[in-house]
Each structure stands twice: as C-alpha cells, then as structure tokens.
Amino acid sequence: MSWGDEGQVGEARGRGLVLRLAFGAMGARVVGLATELGLPDSIGDAERTAAELAAELDLPEANLNRLLRAMAALELLTETAPGRFVLAPAGAVLRTDRPDSIHSFVRMFTDSTMVRAWERLEYSVRTGRTAFDEVFGTDFFDHLKGDAELSALFNAAMSQGSRRTAALLPEHVDFGRFGTVTDVGGGDGTLLAAVLRAVPALRGTVFDTAEGGAQAAATLERAGVADRAAVAVGDFFAGVPAGADAYLLKSIVHDWDDERAASILGHCGRGLAEGGRVLIVEPVLPDTVRPDISPTLYLSDLNMLVNVGGLERTRADFEALCTRAGLAVDRVVALPPESGFCVIEAVPA
C-alpha cells in the first residue's frame, strides 16, 4: 500500500467516524425507545417475530419491524431470518431481570429531561452556565424533587451505574481499618451495602436527601446488612453526621462547582473522627486526552456543565479542591480500567 493509499484509508475511516457521531443522537433514541417499550424483556431468551411483538405492544407491524431492524444494525438484536429477532449480548443488558441490567440507567440518560438541555450546549460553552436551569426554570436536583417517578428512575439509574464500582471498591480499599463509614449522597445504598457485606465488623450510614435515600433502607435490608446500617436524611451543604471514621463520596463531587464541592468536602473533613479519611470516588482526567481513555468521560464532563453545573477533574484539580476544603490528598488509588474510577484518599490538612 502506498502512502497515498494509507491517507485515503485514513480519510475514509475519519469520515465514517464523523458520520457515526452525527447519527449518534438517532441511535440513542432507538435505544431509549427500546427500553421504554420493554422490547428486551418481551424478546427475552426466545426468538420473536415482528408480528408477535407488534400484537403484544399494539403497534403497526411494519413500523415496529423497522425499529427492530435498526436495533439489529446497532448490534442490540440479531435478525435470524426476515422479521425474526433474538437479543444480542448488548441488547440483553437492557433486560430488567438481569443482575447486570442497565435498563434504568439507559432510560434516565435517554429521557427528555436529561437530553433537552443538550440542545443548548452552545449556551453552556459560551457562558459557563447550566443550560438545564434555563430550559426548565430550576436546577436538576430541584426538578427531581418535584417528580417522584423521575426521582425513583434517577435513583435506580445511579444504583445500576454504581454496581460494578461497588463490587470492586472493597477489593482495592482497606475498609477494615475503619469502624464506621458514612456514604454521603449514598442514594439507594448500593455502594454502602457492598462495603458492609465485604467487611462484617463495619457499621455504616447512608446520608442523603429524603428523595435521594428513599430506597436505601430496602436495599440494605435485601443485602442483609440492615442491622449494621442506618439511613440519615439531611443536606450535605448544611453539614454531615459527625464522627465517622470514613466519609465515602461516589459521583458526588463532580456534580458541583469548586465552591460547592469544597463546602461538602469541608463538612466531611470537620466531621471526621481522629485518624479518619475522606474517600472520593470519581473519574480522574489525565492531563491530556489519551486514546485509551473512553470518550464517555469527556461527554460526562460536558453533561456536568450542561445539566448540573459540575465538572470532571484532573488529579491537580482534586488536590486544589481538597486544599480549599482544608484537606490534603494522601494518595490516589486507581480502580480497574473497566470501572473508570479512582479513589482519592484525603486527610485533614
């Protein structure tokens, strides 16, 4: 192959990449509608026809067949014969009956509440302001408070998004050195439940708003750790329950700008028992974009800008943030790459 041929191949690949990105919103909507209709559950382990599914869902067969074929093209289904479909591995994780399901996560991140503000991406990039507030007239978390169904979906999405990290965290962080841990913004308790299961002598508390922690007690009960766990309701901008040996914050700090994030961390630092630690579980951006880093990390950074007003941070950013909060970063533990998270351990400065 000549140099000119290599250049042409590179240009063709680049053009293909750009076209896939340009059609990305359409693909996301296909995935979103598939979860809304419950198609992965309807197909299950069987081979189903478009006619059968159309009758179940009361949809025109021809139109549903077009949707199913698009799902097959996106590798969510396999079309075994004209109009006959089975779930592909990617589509199977959209079933609600699987322990590794990401059904709620996909529902949340393809919901109009999450995507509408992205139409105002330019506004956020130009001004640094949160487009969500402009579109909905309130901030993201206050909006959730006014919609119980959406709040429950968000909690379920965060639970599904935390399961892999919850399984990995106790293997890479020594929780045995602590007697008590408070999961700040702990949502439905998925993370704390995994930690308590791994360390039988540990006691813990989920601390969140009434809406955020609404499902926590049930999660802790199902995990068999309710006798060593409590659920506390409050506002982490006002304070946190005092006296924990460790404060655990997963995917909390990135929701907020430096001023508000430092306020949360400051409360944690001041609440620590002697010798305690603040454990911040977040992605850590490299200093420069690397090809081995998932683009999702940078899309998440923009999502923080557009929808909630936060940001993803580098190690230097976390060090500066902790200094502002009266803490010092002691070490950063990288979880396995498939997790995408690190644990930033901080101590009072």
Automatic annotation (TrEMBL):
Catalytic residues (UniProt): H254 (proton acceptor)
Alphabetized UniProt keyword annotations: Methyltransferase, S-adenosyl-L-methionine, Transferase
Position of the signal peptide: none
Keyword Coiled coil part of the UniProt annotation: no
Domain O-methyltransferase C-terminal: 118-327
Pfam families membership: Dimerisation, Methyltransf_2
Keyword hit for Transferase: yes
InterPro entries assigned: COMT-like, COMT_C, COMT_dimerisation, SAM-dependent_MTases_sf, WH-like_DNA-bd_sf, WH_DNA-bd_sf
A single GO BP: methylation
Gene Ontology MF term list: O-methyltransferase activity; protein dimerization activity
Domain named O-methyltransferase dimerisation: residues: 20-94
Protein name: O-methyltransferase
Organism expressing this protein natively: Allonocardiopsis opalescens
Organism lineage: Bacteria, Bacillati, Actinomycetota, Actinomycetes, Streptosporangiales
